[in-house]
Design brief:
This is Molybdopterin biosynthesis protein. Belongs to the HesA/MoeB/ThiF family. GO terms for molecular function: nucleotidyltransferase activity; thiosulfate-cyanide sulfurtransferase activity; ubiquitin-like modifier activating enzyme activity. The protein is of the alpha/beta class. The protein has one domain (5-245): NAD(P)-binding Rossmann-like Domain (Rossmann fold), CATH 3.40.50.720. It is built from eleven helices and eight strands. The chain has an eight-stranded mixed beta sheet, with helices on both faces. α3 links the parallel β1 (25-29) and β2 (49-53). The structure holds zinc ion. Zinc ion binds at residues 161-162, 164-165, 233, 236, 238-239.
C-alpha cells in the first residue's frame, strides 16, 4: 500500500485499479531503448507479472539511451540484466526473462497467456509476427517505435484494425530502418516508451483504449504530437487469416 500510495491517492485511480495491475500479465518484446523504460515504469507502477524477451547482449553503443544498463553490464544479456534491475526496483512483482528471439517457433506460447503485449522491438519481421499472433489469439497489443527524432505508437485490440492494415507488408518489405543503421537521439525511445507504459496503465487499470485503431506520431524536432485514426483494411492478409481461423 505504501509502495503504491501516490497512485492510489490519485483521483480516478483506486485500489481496484491497482489490484487489476497486480493481476496483469504483460509481455515486453525487446529489451532495448523502448523495452528498458517501459518495463521499469510498469514494474514501479505495480504490474504483477512482467515477461521479457531479447536475444541480444549489451553493447557500449546501447548505453546512450537504454537506461537499465551501465558500463559494467557490457557483454551480458539484456533480458538478464533488465530482469535483475526490475527485481531491485520492485521486489513485490514477478519477472520472467527469455534470452532468445521471438520467432514463429515460440511466439504463440509466449503470447497466449498475456493480458497485454508491448512491442518495442527493433525490426519489421518481429513487429509483423507479434501483430499476427496477437490478432490470431485476440491479445491486446500496444506497439511503440522510435527512429531518429520520430516516434510512433498505436494499439491493436479486439476487432480493431491491425499493424498490417496500417502498414501493408509489401510496402515495408524493402525498408529495414533500424537504430543500428540510422541513429536515434537518447530521448526519443524514452519518450515513446513512457507513452507506451502510460497507455498500458490506462488499459490495465482502467480499461481505457485511447489509441485503439489510432496512430500517435511524435515529432522530436517540433515536439508536436498528432493522432490519426485509421481504418481496418478489408484486404489485410493478416486480418483475413485470423478472421477465418476464429469466425465470430
Ligand atoms: Zn489487419
Amino acid at each position: 500500500m505504501h509502495f503504491y500510495s501516490r497512485q492510489i491517492l490519485l483521483d480516478g485511480w483506486d485500489i481496484e485499479a491497482q489490484e487489476k495491475l497486480k493481476l496483469a500479465n504483460v509481455l515486453i518484446v525487446g529489451c532495448g531503448g523502448i523495452g528498458c523504460t517501459t518495463a521499469e515504469l510498469l514494474a514501479r507502477a505495480g504490474v504483477g507479472k512482467i515477461t521479457l524477451i531479447d536475444a541480444d547482449t549489451i553493447e557500449v553503443s546501447n548505453l546512450q539511451r537504454q537506461i537499465a544498463y551501465t558500463a559494467q553490464d557490457i557483454g551480458f544479456y539484456k533480458a538478464d540484466i533488465l530482469a535483475k534491475r526490475l527485481y531491485q526496483v520492485n521486489p513485490h512483482i514477478r519477472i520472467e526473462s527469455y534470452i532468445t528471439k521471438l520467432d514463429a517457433s515460440n511466439a504463440q506460447q509466449l503470447i497466449i497467456n498475456q493480458d497485454l503485449v508491448l512491442d518495442g522491438c527493433d525490426n519489421f519481421t518481429t513487429r509483423y509476427l507479434v501483430n499476427q499472433i496477437c490478432t490470431q489469439l485476440n491479445i491486446p497489443l500496444i506497439s511503440a517505435s522510435a527512429i531518429g527524432f520520430q516516434g510512433q505508437l498505436f494499439m491493436v485490440e479486439g476487432e480493431s484494425a491491425c499493424y498490417e492494415c496500417l502498414f501493408p507488408k509489401q510496402q515495408h518489405a524493402s525498408e529495414s530502418l533500424r537504430c543500428a543503421d540510422s541513429g536515434v537521439l537518447a530521448t526519443t525511445p524514452n519518450v515513446m516508451a513512457s507513452l507506451q507504459a502510460h497507455h498500458a496503465l490506462l488499459f490495465l487499470g482502467l480499461a481505457k483504449t485511447p489509441l485503439k485503431q489510432k496512430l500517435l506520431l511524435w515529432d522530436g524536432l517540433t515536439m508536436q504530437q498528432r493522432i490519426l485514426a485509421f481504418e481496418k483494411d478489408r484486404d489485410c492478409v493478416n486480418c483475413q487469416a485470423s478472421h477465418s481461423a476464429h469466425p465470430h
